[in-house]
Amino acid sequence: MEWNKPPEIRGRRETERQQFVRATYAQKVEEKREAGDGPAPQLTADDLRAAGSRTIGPEVSGKCVTFCEPSPISWPIFSCGVATAMKSCLICKSAIEPFISFGRMPIANGFLTKEQFAVEPFYELATGFCKTCKMVQLTELVDPDKMFHENYAFFSSTSAGMAAHFESMAKSVKAKYLGPDPFVVEIGSNDGIMLRHFADAGIRHLGVEPSANVAEVARRRGITTISEFFDVNLAKRITAEHGQADAFLGANVMCHIPTLHSVVAGVKMLLKPRGVLVFEDPYLGDIIEKGSYDQIYDEHAFYFSVTSLDHLFAEHELEIIDVASQLTHGGSMRYTVAHRGAWPVTPAVAAQRIKETNLGLSRAETYEQFRRRVETSRDELMALLCKLKADGKRVAAYGATSKSTTVTNYCGITPDIIEYISDTTSIKQNKFSPGAHIPVKPHAEFAKRYPDYALLFAWNHAAEIKAKETAFIESGGRWIVYVPRVEAQS
Ligand code: SAH
Ligand code: TMP
Ligand code: ZN
């Protein structure tokens, strides 16, 4: 059976009203530009009424978001109260060209109830490449408080593999970088999966975690945590209260923060002269090599490489002193950064720059090729799923990951194709997946009656999951994976 769903369900289209509002705002921007510089234009209540909105409220206020401090960027071209469209690079302010769009997309971790379907927010998920500083980034940014709040659905400690990974990261930082009376700061510390190893050792520490529910789990474990968004202003307060830090840590969080200049300025201020920033994020080189487009979603504002980060840190008189590849999240990179000249630079850094050149990370054509590969992957996955359905197979999915929101909405995977998604996170269970509205069920549902096929959305945890799901395979079940290529596996 051919995959022939119409394009409007492969990523939802914006409504007519949104299109009208966007066009009105674009026109205002154009008028401002012709009139010379000035503050960002605002949408008025009249504009919104003309677009047919009866409930204007704060949801749709024309808002200017200036990601300044210390490096201001020019105004966004559109903001609808959910997301802000950007016309220039968040790092160097040059123009950026999108190279792939996934269409209208809901909040990746916005698992919801039936009653919430009518008010579900959407934005345009697309990524662009900056030819000047080589940073790959989203071209429309969802407001942080729409993603990170008291009902945040991602709890780090749901994976035993990740717990072991962060124990080892903490051990390595302790061994290499802590001086006398050490102080450690971690941003995006979530439920304390890494910081607990410092707290348990009696080391002075501070977690900065804006999502209040996960932060509360950390606090209950005895980990000092404040629920705020880290930026240069918070760095000033932390320095005044606690002094400077030996280590500033961040796992899967630096790439989440559009105001990255402000974060790095804060890091610069907070670090002792020999202090280090150690952070890791999904690595652009792996995304390009594996075609893992599902790493692209609202929370991931940036897709880092050594090459692009060099530009960023140079502006703040910091430098990358070490890099190390990680297997986590389908391929990550750990970067260690210090004040310029404070530490020797390991040979791994230059070696990685050469690898990136060979991979073509600085060339626009690489991203065009990536787009073609992603489109092929989508078509192959849908062809396989539709064939299985046509053959009468039962198909479920495993892991209601944030990545799966991109896959389901981009490919058009609906509940008639996937019965449910099994997930161990209680806050996601008995809700529906964002956009595609596939039911999320506890693992017991999966174990009770194995499906014929399970689409492995949590493919980054494949080793851990396959090791504990041997009974599924013994029952004749097969996994479907789509990274690096679409295939059924036993
Ligand atoms: N470090 C954990 C959590 C990663 S999820 C891990 O690797 O498993 C990203 C986390 O960053 C979320 O808990 C989110 O609330 C937090 N976060 C988002 N923006 C932040 C900011 N500006 N400052 C600090 N934390 C932030
Ligand atoms: P992640 O890929 O962003 O880490 O998310 C993994 C999701 O998969 C998370 O919601 C927890 C879920 N999960 C399971 O349901 N079972 C498992 O065995 C593992 C490791 C994760
Ligand atoms: Zn740039």
Would you kindly provide a written description of the structure presented here, covering whatever features stand out?
The protein contains 16 helices and 20 strands. 34% of the residues lie in helices and 20% in strands. The two termini are 23 Å apart. It is α/β, with parallel strands linked by helices. α7 (232-242) runs parallel beside α8. The radius of gyration is 23 Å and the shape is globular. The chain has helices at 16-34, 45-50, 144-147, 160-177, 196-199, 212-220, 232-242, 260-270, 284-290, 306-314, 347-359, 364-390, 402-411, 443-448, 462-468, 470-474; strands at residues 78-79, 83-85, 97-106, 122-129, 136-138, 140-142, 183-187, 204-208, 225-226, 245-251, 271-282, 302-303, 318-326, 332-339, 395-398, 421-422, 440-441, 453-456, 478-481, 487-489. Residues 1-14 and 52-77 have low confidence and may be disordered. The chain has a 7-stranded mixed beta sheet with strand order 9-8-7-10-11-14-13. The longest helix has 27 residues, at 364-390. 47% of the residues are buried. Thymidine-5'-phosphate (TMP) is lined by residues 158-159, 399-402, 423-425, 458, 460-461, 464-465.
What keywords describe this structure?
490 residues; alpha/beta; Rossmann fold; 7-stranded mixed beta sheet; 6-stranded mixed beta sheet; 20 strands; disordered N terminus; binds S-adenosyl-L-homocysteine; binds thymidine-5'-phosphate; binds zinc ion
